[in-house]
Amino acid sequence: MTITKQMDIAKRVYDILRGIDPYCILAGGAPADWYLKRTANDLDFYYFVPSTWANRVVDKQIARNDPRGLLQKSSGATRTIEKLAQYEHMKNVKNITEYEYDGMQVHIMRMLKPTFGLHRNFSAGVTEAWWTPERGVEYSKRFLDGHENKVISAGDMYTLDNMHIKKLMKKYPDYRVEASK
After folding, report:
1. How many Cβ atoms sit within 10 Å of the Cβ of residue 165?
2. Which domains does the chain have, with CATH numbers?
3. How far apart are CA 111 and CA 81, in angstroms?
4. Helices 55-65 and 3-18 meet at what angle, rounded to 10?
5. Can you tell me the distance from the alpha carbon of 54 to that of 78, in angstroms, rounded to the nearest whole number?
6. Which of 20, 66, 67, 70 minimizes the C-alpha distance to 47?
7. pLDDT score, position 152
């Protein structure tokens, strides 16, 4: 699948989620991969709704915004953050629902806090990238410095033995890891 096709899928999923949270964003791995001219493994979207909304209400809203039913839940469905060790550091994630859209794996992360400004709180500099159709792909200075200097900076939410940091070390084997300053 091409980057252009992935961005097209991202726009379609974004349009579905925007009806739930106008500040939803695609962030992390996919925009980082696109910067490096690589295709992404999956798309990680972040959204917020009031805590009074049950997951079934969110599911109904998604279905309403996706009348053709193109965004399909994967077998894993919705899992709480405690059951996903690689996301244990993400204290503001309530749960993650796995979907598929046109052959692309999509993770939709329900946040405990609004998503506006979420990208400013990433702890691993090399993943501090985000995307919206209106603005395209954007990157923080930490992201650009990390890739230029080949450094994975582990922020204050991470320990160097965290599963997410280990995943990044495999993805970027020629980068060194250091704690953020």
Report:
1. 19
2. 3-142 (3.30.460)
3. 10
4. 120
5. 12
6. 20
7. 83
* pLDDT, greater one: 22 or 86: 22
Name the residue among 107, 94, 143 with its Cα closest to residue 123: 143
Name the DSSP letter for residue 45: E
Taking only the tens place, the pLDDT of each residue in 47-103 is 999 888 888 888 888 888 888 888 887 765 655 555 555 555 566 777 888 888 999
Which residue type sits at 13? V
Which one, of 95, 96, 153, 148, lies nearest residue 123 by Cα? 153
What is the model's pTM? 0.84
Q: How far apart are CA 57 and CA 72, in angstroms?
A: 16
Number of CB atoms found within 10 A of residue 109's CB: 23
Instruction: Give the dihedral sign, CA 121/149/45/55.
Output: negative
Residues in the chain: 181
